Amino acid sequence: MKLKYWLSALVALLVVVAIAWNFSNRELDTSRVDSFTSEGADREVSTPSEVDGTQQVRLSDRKINVAGIRSEEVERGTLVITRTLPARFAYDDTRHVSLRTPTDGVLESILVKTGDSVDRGQPVAVLRSPSIGTARNQILSEKANLELAQEAYRWEADIHAGVSDLAKRIRAGEAIDAIKQSSQDKTIGEFGGQLLTMYSKSNLANRLSRSVDDLGGSGAISGRVVQERQSDRQQSEAMLEAAIEQSLFQTRQSMIQAEAKRNEAERRLRIAKQTLGTLLGTLADSMGGLDVSPNELDVSRLTIQSPLSGTIESKAFSASERVAAQDELFVIADTSSLWVEADIRGRDWESIHVGQGDEVMVSTPAMNMPPHPAMVYTVGRQVDPASGAIPLVAKIDNSKGHFRPGLFARMAVPIETRHDVILVAESALMDLDGQTSVFVISEDGFEPVTVEVGAQGGGMVEIREGLIEGQSVVVSGAFALKSELLLEGEE
């Protein structure tokens, strides 16, 4: 009896468990359906579908905006094929200078520090040098000699001009009072006074001769006296003419000698300046002159100025240090424009054909930035024996300060141009099941299309098969579409 009782109880318990398990499964299925329905409502519409056997992705407008999906129309265009060369940023040689000491000396002071911005002509250091003091002192001495020589020349030239005018008036027979009046504002010197005296005597001899001639005709004066007076007149006229000739000659010679001394003084000053210029080297031009100190008691002090506007890139010395000739004090550069130097290897010589002014694209792996345009500055002609390459230098705008000298870069150089080809942006390409594809916008959503690609360049790629003009291709956010496609495929 007990065995039958326990068997009946066990059967009843199993029936109860079975009923409970069946009820639980039905509730779970209901929950899954409700959950799927709720999720579908939250996701709005995000399911793949097949239209005429083609798989498509549908997204709501909200998801399209969130994914940043953007499309462009397929067009025909020109594709520039490039070759990427390793490159590096460098200073623009036309905006870069290594400022060096012109001669031995001691740095009195350093007026700038690394990173400072400087203007052209701004003082950056002060140097004291005995050699510069000696050269400047010679210039100052020669300047003083030149001033004396110029003054002497002006004096002699004025005397010669005054004597020449005086001689002209005397020979014209002007009255002596009128000559004296006109000569008051002229420099006639010692010769002028002598000529006026002799002219006065000559006029007196003429008057006496004329009066004797009148009296001799009436017999009042003997013929001998008349001849003596005529002889005196002729002698005075001859002496006056000789004095005029001598005065003109002497004053002209004095003027020529003074001019020669002036020219010699000018030459000596030029030589002194050239000596200082040679001593200063390029600083003479960069500082806008020889910087001959107006303070004659401190001619050994040289204020070194910046030869260009830019930034102090490096500083090698401090104040009170002794420096030798050609020691580098500063590196000053205007980095608003930089050079990008690339090497064209032997295998690329035949394919790369660029010249001055051509555009290349420069990018750098160190910065997350799109490629920047640069203009070819020069293409070298000589092969570097160490690298076996020809240098290619391009100038790039760096007004925003993104790049720095020494930074590595990549330079995309055009090697071929293809016209009238189907082009899409490289960002449109996706790998779907091992095939290169793009997403084309259709009436029912986004359709993945397998394409055959050709050459690439400048962020664009040639499409040989798979697309036609006028189609709209996703160029931004294609990865989100690929993710949706793969996710729904797994479900």
From TrEMBL:
<dbReference type="InterPro" id="IPR051909">
    <property type="entry name" value="MFP_Cation_Efflux"/>
</dbReference>
<dbReference type="GO" id="GO:0015679">
    <property type="term" value="P:plasma membrane copper ion transport"/>
</dbReference>
<dbReference type="GO" id="GO:0022857">
    <property type="term" value="F:transmembrane transporter activity"/>
</dbReference>
<dbReference type="InterPro" id="IPR058649">
    <property type="entry name" value="CzcB_C"/>
</dbReference>
<dbReference type="InterPro" id="IPR006143">
    <property type="entry name" value="RND_pump_MFP"/>
</dbReference>
<dbReference type="GO" id="GO:0030313">
    <property type="term" value="C:cell envelope"/>
</dbReference>
<keyword id="KW-0813">Transport</keyword>
<dbReference type="Pfam" id="PF25973">
    <property type="entry name" value="BSH_CzcB"/>
</dbReference>
<keyword id="KW-0175">Coiled coil</keyword>
<feature type="domain" description="CzcB-like barrel-sandwich hybrid">
    <location>
        <begin position="101"/>
        <end position="334"/>
    </location>
</feature>
<dbReference type="GO" id="GO:0060003">
    <property type="term" value="P:copper ion export"/>
</dbReference>
<feature type="coiled-coil region">
    <location>
        <begin position="248"/>
        <end position="275"/>
    </location>
</feature>
<dbReference type="Pfam" id="PF25975">
    <property type="entry name" value="CzcB_C"/>
</dbReference>
<feature type="domain" description="CzcB-like C-terminal circularly permuted SH3-like">
    <location>
        <begin position="423"/>
        <end position="482"/>
    </location>
</feature>
<protein>
    <submittedName>
        <fullName>Secretion protein HlyD</fullName>
    </submittedName>
</protein>
<dbReference type="InterPro" id="IPR058647">
    <property type="entry name" value="BSH_CzcB-like"/>
</dbReference>
<dbReference type="GO" id="GO:0016020">
    <property type="term" value="C:membrane"/>
</dbReference>
<comment type="similarity">
    <text>Belongs to the membrane fusion protein (MFP) (TC 8.A.1) family.</text>
</comment>
